[in-house]
Amino acid sequence: MSEIRGRAHVYGDNVNTDVIIPARYLTSSDADELARHCMEDIDPEFAAKLKPGDVIVAGENFGCGSSREHAPVAIKAAGISAVIAGTFARIFFRNAINIGLPALACPEAAGDIEDGDEVAVDLASGRIENVTRGRSYQAEPFPAFLREIVEAGGLVPYTRKRLAAR
Question: Which residues contact 38 (CB under 8 A, 6 or more apart)?
């Protein structure tokens, strides 16, 4: 899973967990149900226009607000393969990694990638390529242990795998 490739869906700064998954849907923990309502308050057509593997690109402080785990779950279940942002709220970043959703901080990419651009991401090197515009950017590469968690599908599957190997 080191290489990710998809179309960019671009949003601005301070995209909070309340617009990622509105509170009125938090009575459900069903990932498919959450996916149907992902981003609907900021982009009502989001779920309908997604293709598996697409990427969210946003500005500063993505995932701010409450610490709800529903937000990265909704994003991943919707088919998003990675989130690229200028910066992340720390709890969102950790929740994303814990469920196996790559989250890369790269202000240059976040400010330059446009809606609809095709994007390729290499988690091992941190290289982000805007295939559409022929530009590349450098995010901090994921340390090996974070890559292992993401590639396992999240912290729970990673831990199960490690325990089984004992």
Answer: 20, 21, 46, 47, 74, 75, 77, 78
